[in-house]
Amino acid sequence: MTSVTGRPAAVAAGLSPQPAPMREVVEELAADRYAGRRVGIAGGRAAAAWLADLLREAGARVRLDEFPVTGTVREVYGVPTLSWPAGGTGALVFRRDFCEHLASADLPDPRTGQLSTMDDADLTGAWVLDGRYSPRRAEDAVTRGAVGILVPRDTDAAGWMPKMIAGPAPVALPVLAVRTDLYERMRTGAQGSTVTAAVPVRTVDVTGVNVHGEFRPPLGGLTLLLTAHFDGVGDDPDGLRFPAACDNAAGVAAVIEAARILHRVLPDGIGLGVALLDGEEAGATGSAWHAPTVEPGTLVINLDGAARLGQAAAVEAGGPAGPLLAALDLAGRQTGVPLRAQAMPSDNRRYAVAGLPAVGIGMGMPGYQTPAENPERVEDATLTVAARLLTATAVNLADGSNPRRPDPRR
Amino acid sequence: MSTQATEPAAGGFAGDPAEAFNPPKAGGCCGSPATGTGAAGGQTEVCCGTAAEAQASGGCCGEAAKAEAVDSGAGCCG
Fold this sequence. Notes:
The structure holds two protein chains of two kinds. Chain A is of the alpha/beta class. Chain A is built from ten helices and 15 strands. Chain B is 21% helix and 3% strand. Chain B is built from two helices and one strand; from the N terminus they run E-H-H. At the A-B interface, strand 6, helix 5, strand 13, helix 8 and strand 14 of A face strand 1, helix 1 and helix 2 of B.
């Protein structure tokens, strides 16, 4: 067992992260006026502008960088509907009983058809129940005259169907995901009854904007880049809110707080930047745009989720990140934050693909991409330990304190 | 405002930190808790895939895992 050495300079200097400013960031970004911060909407741009001002106030030189997002974002532009009179269920509730399938064709007006399955000989005019959906099976259903497809989907523990927006090219039929128990009722004994549904969903091309804050210019030595995405999946047209407090207003708040501290405590000559990224929910497009422009050798730490630590923080490393990972491990032991190797498919992967040493850290997203993901779900304690972990990692890198020697091949 | 305490007992990696270079597949999407897809065999959605799969596709998510997650109706973060 390696002993814990060193003590974060930030702690020694009395510069511990404070929860109050982080909570202000979380509550601001989750506010109604930003409308869930989906890439390309006015609320998302307003959030970027607010964050730019905040970074300036913290002492950073700020730059906004726009980028195109094409062919990816699936936008629900009206409220999808689904009714099944024979089921005796009354009006079915969007995102509780059913939701859009990301591969759905646009169906702006309601369409009625009989419930059928792919095993039925005649699918003409039918809504097809298909528990084994694939694009190929959708093509088959089109050929056989179906008017739409219904697939099963579970809800989260609170009964929501989490919203996502990054979709593939649509198939030729409207597709809805139906709550599993309801789907099963439709499938067993209800065939021949009719459903009526509308799926107003389309692919939109939009412009995203990354917010860059340079706290300390790179001087050819160690340069650290802290990243977190600020975008969400956006509110629904019926006013259903998706505050995106945990994923990832919390991560943004912790990154900014850590940068504020590091700006004061890092030794001269060490570069420090922050990238608050747009478009993560649309395929990590903001980091894909940014990563190729980053100076080689820059150490990247991405934080996605900082709301409820639970047992351990998830950590994924990519690129030549051995020394960075060792500094993080030491920081975990210094700050008492358990770390666990776990997939973190987020912006960190874009930086790793670009050949940069990158780690992704996750500290929980309760209510993930549902209306329940509100500021009350974000723990002050987790915000604090997240900022402390980032700060200690950076200080360890600056000190060169890596008791676990990195694999030179990494 | 939440004041729930989070007090980890011991910090750092319990095992070899290098495991973080090839961690297990995500059980959910982008670090989220998994949600099942129920009727189609009760399988758990696996969005994004491993880091190696994502690297091979040059993106954030492995192509096969992404397609599987989207087809199931759950969707994928990227």
